[in-house]
Amino acid sequence: MSRRVKNVVVLSDIAGVGGGASKIALLTAEILRDRGYNVVFFAGFGDGGEQFDGMRLEVVHEKPFLESDSKMRGAFEGLHSKKTYMKLRGVLSEYSCDDTVLHAHGWTHALSSSIFDAIADAGFKSICTLHEYFLSCPNGGFFDYGKNEICKLKPCSVRCLLRNCDKRSYSQKLYRVCRLVRQNRSIKRANPKLCYLSPFTYSWLKGNFLDDGDPCFLPNPIDSQGEYRPTPIGLRNGYLFVGRMDPEKNPELFCEAMTRLGIEGTLCGDGPMVQELRERYPNLTFMGWCDKDELVSQFRAKKALILTSSWLEASPLACLEAMFSGGIPSIVPDTCGATSYIEDGVNGLWFENGNLDSLCSAIQKIEHEDFYESVCSQIEECMPSLRDDRSLETYAERVTDLYEALYE
Q: Rounded to whole angstroms, how far apart are CA atoms 326 and 300?
C-alpha cells in the first residue's frame, strides 16, 4: 500500500535510553527505520550510539537544563529554548510538510516546548505521545512528593499554586507552573494529535485544553526478551520487586509485606534507598541493577511480580515482561496504569495504594494453590492476544496509520 508520509522526525529529550519515554522514542525510530522511513532523531542531549545507525541524529545541547553551568540560563532555556527552536527550524527547512510528520515523546528536560512553536511556524503536522502528565500537571505526576501521596487538586488552581508538592523546592514548583503555561500556549499553536497510553492515563488528563472527547490510544510496544517459557508452578518460589529504589516507588512496602508474611522476597533495582533497605531488611535479597537476561531469569523463578508505586505509574512494562517471559501474574496498586491490562482477580491482583494490609491480603490469595493456578491459566489464555496487542508489528501499524490519518 502506498503511503504519503516518507519522513518522520522523532523528538526526545535524550539520544539514548534514560527512562520509559526515551526508550519508546528510540524504539519508535528503530521500527520506522526498519520499515523504510527516512528517520530524523532530534534530541536534547546524549551521545547517540550504534542504535542510531541508519537514521539521522541531531542533538541540540550538551546536557539537560538542570545541569547547565548557568542555572539562570538553564531555567530560561527550560521555559523556551531559542537554540532548540532554531535547530529544529533548520532541520525542517530541508523537508516538505507534504510528506513529513513529527512525533514528540518528551521535551521537558532538554528540548523545551519551543519544539511546538517550530512545528507550528514551519507548518508541519505532528503527533504527541503523552508518557507523563505534564500536559496538565506542573510536576508531571499528579503527585505530592513532600507528602508522598497522589494529588487530586485541580492543576494550577489556587490550592494547587499554594501547595509545595515539588520534589526539589517550592520555587521549583512555581517555575514549573510558569513552564506549563508557556508550554501549553506553544502546544496549542502546533495542535498535535494527542496520543494517550491507556484509558487510565486519559482519565487523569481528560478535559485538557486539546481534549476533543474522542481520545486516541497508543499503547507502548514491548520488545519482550526471550520466548515464553514458564517454570512449572510447583517450582516457583518467592516474590519480586523491580524498580528504582525511590520513595515514590515505595519499595519499603514490598519489604514490609515480605517480612510480615515471612515470605522470600527479591528486589531488582538501585537508587537512594537501597542501602537503608539492605540494613533494615537482611531477610530479603537485594540484586542491585539487573540486565534483561537476569530479569527474565527472575520472572521465571518467582511466583509473582509486585509493584508498590505510590505515584500514578503511567505504563509500567515490567508486568507485561513478567507475563510474556515467565507467565507469572502481577500484584499492582489500584492507582497504576497496569490496571488497564491486569484484571483484578483474573490475570493478576490489585491492592489499595500504600495499604500494607491490602497488599498482604493479595499475596495470601496468590499463596492459595487453586487460586494461583486459576490466575496462571488466565494468563496463558490471554497471552496470544496481549502479545499481539503490544507487539512491534501492531505498534508500527498503529503509529503509521496515525501519520497517514493526519492528511485525511
A: 4
Own/partner contacts of 46-51, CB < 8 Å, gap of 24 or more, are 46/14, 46/15, 46/16, 46/18, 47/15, 47/16, 48/15, 48/16, 49/15, 49/16, 51/16, 51/26
Q: Return the C-alpha cell found at 245.
A: 529504589
For residue 160, pLDDT beyond 90 = yes
* Element of type H or E holding 351: strand 349-351
* Closest to 363 measured CA to CA, from 261, 215, 251: 261
Biggest CA pair distance of the chain: 63
- Whole-angstrom distance, CA of residue 401 vs CA of residue 405: 6
Q: Tens digit of pLDDT for each residue in 64-95? A: 998 988 888 899 999 999 999 999 999 999 99
What's the mean per-residue pLDDT of the chain?
94
134 vs 197: CA distance, rounded Å: 14
> If we measure between CA atoms, which residue out of 190, 199, 177, 140 comes closest to residue 20?
140
Do the Cβ atoms of 328 and 376 come closer than 8 Å? yes
* Rounded Cα–Cα distance for residues 253 and 359 (Å): 9
Q: Residue 18: which region, alpha, beta or left (left: phi > 0; alpha: psi -120 to 50)? A: alpha
Sequence-separated (6 or more) residues with CB below 8 Å from residue 74: 65, 66, 67, 68
Q: At CA 317, angle to CA 311 and CA 320, rounded to 5? A: 125
Lookup: cell for 298: 527472575
Q: How many CA atoms lie within 13 A of 253 on its CB side?
A: 27
Q: Is 304 exposed, middle or buried (CB count within 10 Å of its CB: 0-12, 13-18, 19+)?
A: buried
**pLDDT tens-digit series, residues 118-152:** 999 999 999 999 999 999 999 999 999 999 999 99
pTM over 0.85: yes
Cell numbers at 12, concatenated: 526526545
In the numeric block, the cell 528536560 is attached to 109
